[in-house]
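ok so i was messing around last nite and threw this chain in just to see what happens. nothing serious, just curious
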Amino acid sequence: SKAVAKMSGFNDQAMSNTVWAFVTLSSPFDALMDKAAAEALLRAHALDSQNLSMIAWAFAEVKKSREPLFVAISLRAVVLLKSCAEESSMQEAYMPALSLAYAFTVLSAKPS
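result:
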């Protein structure tokens, strides 16, 4: 796919939007998800709450666990939570925290 080939040149929002869109349309594929995981892992330290949320949600929706990525997203979410707590603006940090909680719940759930 052209998206996979060009993803390294995408800005953070374009990368997270692409992953979100493919998952929303029920057409994720391994090459795209692998590339997105690699790119997001490289950028996790600087991603904003919206992009973190979209990426965590997308991987949870397709039940694709990428432990190093989720560790990096978790660490970034903690930084965002701390900085928002200091600024008395928690809304910025709620979305990645909620998306991570959702993702970890989905990815750790056992089929019944």
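not much to say yet. Residues 67-87 form the longest helix (21 residues).
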